[in-house]
Every structure is written in C-alpha cells, then in structure tokens.
Amino acid sequence: MPPQPQVANALQQEFSDWRLWAARLVVLSFAAASGLAIVGFTWLAEVALAAFFRLERAAWWAPLIWTPLLTAGIVWLTRRFAPGAAGSGIPQIIAVLEHESAAAQRPLFVSMKLSVAKLFLTAAGLLGGLALGREGPSVQIAAGIMRNARRWLPAQSQISENGLLMAGGAAGIAAAFNTPLGGVMFAIEELSRRPEQRRNGLLIGAIVLAGLMAVSVYGNNTYFGVIRVERFSFRMVAPALLVALLCGAAGGLFARALIAILSGRTTDRFSRLRGHAPIRFAACCGLLVALIGIVSQGASYGSGYAQTKAMIAGASESTHLAVLLRFVATWFTAASGVPGGLFAPSLSIGAGLGNSVATLMAYPNAPTLIALGMAAFLAAVTQAPLTAFIIVMEMVDGHELVLSLMACTLIASGLSRLISAPLYPALAELQLARLK
Questions:
Q1: 225: which strand partners?
Q2: Cα–Cα dist 231/408, whole Å
Q3: What is the pLDDT at residue 196?
Q4: Which residue intervals of 128-236 are DSSP H helices?
C-alpha cells in the first residue's frame, strides 16, 4: 500500500516552484486560444457555406462554373504555398508524433502558417460547396497554435512538444464538435501511443478547456439535437446489426478507395490525370461534385450537417440515391487534394444509411438507426471505434443508446479492418513521402 502524502509537504512542493505554475498557465492559455480559434473557424465555415447556398439558390447552374474554378484555385494555392495543409490534417499530426523523420521537420506538417492557411483554404472549399468537413482541419489548426506554446514555457519544463501537439489536435476535435470527452478519447486512440502523454493531467485539462471555449460561445447544446429512442427490445437487434454491417462495409470501401487514389498506385486514367495534372484533376473533381449536387437537388453539397440534423428531427428524409451521391461527392472532394476533413461527411453518410435501413425494414423509430449509422460509418472510416462512439454519444441526447452505439462501432470498425488498412496511418505514410 503506497504511503499517504504529507499534506503540508505536498502543498509546499506544489507552490514552491513558480516555473511549474508558469508552465500550467502557458499551456492552458494556449488551449483557450486554440478553442477560440476553432470557434472562429466554425463561424467562418458556416458563413462560407451559407454564401454558396445563396449562390446556388439564385442560379442552380452556377456551381457548374464556380465549383470547378474554385477547387482548382484552392489546390493550386495549396500546392504552391502550403502543401502541408492538403487533406484532412490528422495524418500530418500522426506523422509528426509517430515518425522521427517527420518530427525533425515539424514545420512541414504543423505550424502557425499552416494553421492560418488551413483555416482559410478549408472555408474556401465550403464556399465552393465541396463535400468536406471542418473537424479534421481543426485538429491541425489547433495543434499548430498549441505548438507555439513551447517557446513560452520555462526552461527545463517537463512538457514536450509532442505532448503539446497531441493536446492541440485533440483540443481541435473537442472544440469543433463541442465534445470534450470525444477530444480526450481521440488523443488516446488516434494521436498518442505513449502512456506518459495519456496520463498527463495538464494536457487532458487543456483538451477539456478548449472544448469549454466552444461551450461558452455556443452553449451546452447537443450538436445534432435530441433523439427520441425507444427502450431496447429484440426487434431492434436485426436493424441495428444491418446498419453496423452496411456501414462497416461502406466505410471500409471508402477508405480503401481513398488510399488507392491518393497513393497513386492505381494505373487507371483518372489516377494518371491526378498524378500528371493535379490542377486539372481538381477542376474535374469540382465539376463532378457540382453535377452530383444538381442531381441530388443540393443534398450533397457541404458537410451535410444541416441535412443530418433535419433528418434526426424528422423534418426531412434522405433517399437511397441521395446517400450514394453524398458518398461519391465526399470521395471526389477528398481525392481532389483540397484541405478538408471527413468527420462531418462521414456522419452524414452514416445517418443516411441508417435512415435507409429504417425505411427498408419499416422500423418505426428511424432516429435510433440514424444515430447508430452515424457512429458506425465514422468508426468504419477512421477505424477508431471508441472515438466515434463517444463523439456521437456526446453530440446527441440519447443516452439509452450507449451500449448499442458501442456495439455498432466495434462491429463496423472490425469489418472495415478486413477491407482496408487504417485510413489515417496510411495517409500519414503518404505525408512522409514529401520528405524524400
């Protein structure tokens, strides 16, 4: 049995070293700044997407011109001035945390410059109606801000730069989704393989504080609203299992296809165009996204947040075709090379798959399967079941679903692992190719 601490001595040690408290103040201050930056990023992204929808309502054909041009412009700017800002942003952080070669050249993957570029380029993608999310970019943005805390820490501080990056990346998730617990689990499951970082109470506190910044601005409201769920019964087992299997297979295929096109290992004409003429390829992807948006009557544009929230509330329904079109539009957006994330589009696709299963099986409580589909598809794409489960659990007020959400994420993630390599570690390897 460990000895009990001597209270007087413990207090003396705690308050005798000013550097300890200075380090804490610096870390928490930068965590708050990271959270506020993501709040501002959220506002800018919403304004950009609203502007696109105003354009689309004024002239339905305008995206056929605007979206390809803007997509090509974003990719040109990214490749020319900020190549480290391309894609989600999560692979860049994983590359730095897990590989010594990347750690030696951190500014190529995470920096204040890349954070600023990521913020505006992702918002520009939403201004073009591209099917992308802001949550993955929030990871890189917040990590870039937290990294700068290192220069203000006292000498001989025990807080490592990797620890700051891990806390910043997780803080980005916490602030973007208003889910502090989800941010902590994301740090444990995706970003950190080192136990000493997982146990650092100061860094976990920084993650929670960043999430509280979002709460202070937007209020302690659930991200997608209230889900009315029924008590568990055996008639729920078959529909829930079908949702988990369908989302697991679809998410695994999505990840495998995305890794294939981004790695350049396929030899089809589409992949060759991406390798030889990336700007023209981006314009083609933008045109295809615009065409898909017109066919789906606007349902495939943007992150899908509004459509998902309306679906949960029962204010709208998603057709089977609309789900497929959003799946394809999200893949083309990610393949184009623009900065943008996959979390929100994945949640939207999963919600549509859950709703489709509810329709096909005449299940009376569609919101239940919608929530299960959100968690399952996100878990299948990221292969991070606990993160997906906690994020969705925090985003919806449906606590009766806890065990069902957990089971669906584990099944979907397990099936996805049979189909595809883990998406973010694979993309992190591709990021390392820039060092060669």
A1: 396
A2: 17
A3: 46
A4: 135-147, 161-177, 180-186, 195-198, 201-218
